[in-house]
Design brief:
The protein is mainly β. It has helices spanning 15-32, 105-108; strands at residues 39-43, 49-53, 58-72, 77-83, 93-100, 110-117, 121-128, 132-144. It has a 5-stranded mixed β-sheet. A 3-stranded antiparallel β-sheet has the order 4-7-6.
Amino acid sequence: MGKLIVPQRGQPLDVSYMYDIVQALNELQDQVGSSIQDVLVVVDETNKSRSTKMNRSAAFGVTAPVITATSVELNKTYPVTVSFEVKFNSKPIVVATPNNIGGTEPGKSANVVITKITNNSAEFLVSFTTAGLATVSLNVLAMGIPI
C-alpha cells in the first residue's frame, strides 16, 4: 500500500484526494480482513441522508452549517459539533474543510481546527482572520470501520 501525500494546513481537499484516502482504508481493511457490511452515508445541510454501499469501510460525510449571515469577529472561535449517523468501532479519521457559501472576504479567511473526535461525533473550532459578514459551512468526512 502506497503512502498518501500529506496536504498543507488549510488546503482544500478534493475528490481525488478523498478517493485516495478511502482507497487506502479499503486496502488496510483487506489486509486486516473483515466481513463487515459497509456503507457511505452523506448528509446535506437540510439533514437529508442517503446511503450507498462501499467496499470494506464506512465513511460519513456531512455539510454542516456553521455561520449563517453573521458578523464574525477577528480571531474569535466558533465551536461546532457534528454527530455522525454511523457509529464507528474506534475513532474515525476525520477531515473538515470550510466552505465560503456567502462568497465574502471574511468567509475566505475561515480556518477550522478539529478539537475532539469520538466514535460518533467530532468537535471543531472555526475562526476568521478577517472580520465582517460571513456565511460558512463545514464539509466534514469521517472514515473508519463501523460497528
